Amino acid sequence: MSRVLIIDDNYDMLSMLTMILERQGKHEVIACSNGQEGLDAAFKAPPDVALVDVMMPGMSGYDVVKRLRADPRTERIGVIILTARGQAVDREAALAAGADDHMTKPANVEELLKRIDALLNRDKVKAANVMTLPVLSVKGGVGVTTLVINLANVLQQIAPTVLLDLAPTIGQCAFGLGMRPEKHWGHYLENRNTPVASLVQKHPTGLQALFAPPLPGQYGWPNVDAVTAIFTQLAAAARFIVVDMPPLLDPTAQAVLSQAQRILLVSGDDALAIQVTRATLQALQEWKERLLVIRNAVAPGPRPPAEAIQKALRVPLAADIAYDPAQVAVAAKGLPLAAVQPKTPLVLGVKRIAQLLLAR
Ligand SMILES: Nc1ncnc2c1ncn2[C@@H]1O[C@H](COP(=O)(O)OP(=O)(O)OP(=O)(O)O)[C@@H](O)[C@H]1O
Ligand SMILES: [Mg+2]
């Protein structure tokens, strides 16, 4: 049984939600009609998920969520803000207050139950002791896929690792590993009863990979619910999940980032790349403790010193990877460089990242 706390000053709403959840037979419901009562109940016995209304007399739902997040007993619980206010700014306000999700009233019951399950599954992924490691650049073309392939290869030497290709650009990970994406997450979107494990392909090095569909747009894009289910299923088979992220921060990408232990943000060093990285750092502010910023060079030639980049970005570089001619030689062969040349600049940089990940 999971514990679900509902805080809403509208009595009808409160009893309806309680009934819907209890009818499922897998939730124990604690119903509270104001913010203070809800907080008292939450601190006394932390729920797994809280559904919080916004406009209530006394304390607003936003304040309730902030107080839940500020207390070590409840900082990690799943929180959904349920409100009559459905504008984009309202969603932003809910997320800014610390909610995991936001839904507009009247809520579609099926959708609400799904989102509660998604939050509960997220906790299962955490409990499974899996390290989710998204690698991201909003600009693109800075070596994300290359780092994902090599990091996954290095981590696989330590413990079972899955590479998940969530980049929308036609199967670059499969290409980089010299494999054909015959099975991919598109098949799961097509039929949600397909076990995700049956779509995972194995590389000769032992690395497991869940590839992206080979044709863009053919299967659509996983929503929060689908991507959460994919992670929950992958977590059963791996200690590390290294993710080639799309160059965007939509709700799906945010769902991945929200459950990640570390987020690897990759930057180039031309003026535009720096600007994009700075903007991304700002957008990822809420997860700044988890961020590792990496500079990578995809072209030869002189480049600014690391100090200048750190100053421009106002964060230290976790790794600074030079242009590696050996990468160019293996790129078309479908081999991770780390599997063939253990001591070139790219591989040494990736090993340093792996050490940082394991040290913390
Ligand atoms: N350190 C490096 N040294 C030399 N070449 C590199 C290095 N890192 C990446 N490359 C090369 O740069 C090119 C772009 O890299 P990659 O495809 O990994 O970037 P990406 O960020 O995933 O791009 P996209 O946004 O298109 O997905 C590739 O040809 C790759 O082999
Ligand atoms: Mg890529």
List its salient traits.
binds magnesium ion, 15 helices, single chain, five-stranded parallel sheet, Rossmann fold, alpha/beta
Characterise this structure.
This protein has an eight-stranded mixed sheet with strand order 8-9-7-10-6-11-12-13, sandwiched between helices. A five-stranded parallel sheet has the order 2-1-3-4-5, sandwiched between helices. The chain is 42% helix and 17% strand. The chain has helices spanning 11-23, 35-44, 61-70, 88-97, 109-127, 144-156, 172-176, 185-190, 224-234, 251-258, 271-283, 306-313, 325-331, 337-340, 345-359; strands at 2-7, 27-32, 49-53, 78-83, 101-104, 131-136, 161-165, 201-202, 208-210, 240-244, 263-267, 291-296, 319-321. It is globular, with a radius of gyration of 22 Å. It is an alpha/beta fold and 360 residues long. The structure holds adenosine-5'-triphosphate and magnesium ion (MG). Magnesium ion is lined by residues 144-145, 167, 169, 172, 244.
